[in-house]
């Protein structure tokens, strides 16, 4: 009976060892798969964040350029209007004073 008990004990210990090895291998495989998936997902998230940041920067640059162009156009229009008004005022003053002069000279 002792021999059979020793053989049974060896078989049980080998079975437990095999089960433990299988469980460890499965856990290692699952951990590796999870790490790889996380790396891929994190990489995709990083790529997505970089793309979003680049798009936001480009949009901000476009908005800044549009605002600068609008400000330049408004400044040019204001300068042109001021120049036209000054010219008109000068012409009116000159014509007004010259007509008075002419009228004075004629009298």
Automatic annotation (TrEMBL):
Protein keywords: Membrane, Transmembrane, Transmembrane helix
UniProt lineage: Eukaryota, Metazoa, Spiralia, Lophotrochozoa, Mollusca
Highest taxon listed in the record's lineage: Eukaryota
Bilayer-crossing regions: 6-39, 46-68, 74-95
Name of the protein this chain belongs to: Uncharacterized protein
């Amino acid at each position: 009976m002792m021999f059979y008990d020793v053989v049974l004990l060896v078989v049980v210990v080998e079975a437990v060892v095999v089960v433990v090895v299988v469980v460890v291998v499965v856990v290692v495989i699952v951990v590796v798969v999870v790490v790889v998936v996380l790396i891929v997902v994190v990489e995709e998230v990083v790529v997505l964040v970089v793309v979003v940041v680049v798009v936001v920067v480009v949009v901000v640059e476009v908005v800044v350029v549009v605002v600068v162009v609008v400000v330049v156009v408004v400044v040019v229009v204001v300068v042109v209007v001021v120049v036209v008004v000054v010219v008109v005022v000068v012409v009116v003053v000159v014509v007004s004073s010259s007509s008075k002069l002419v009228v004075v000279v004629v009298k």
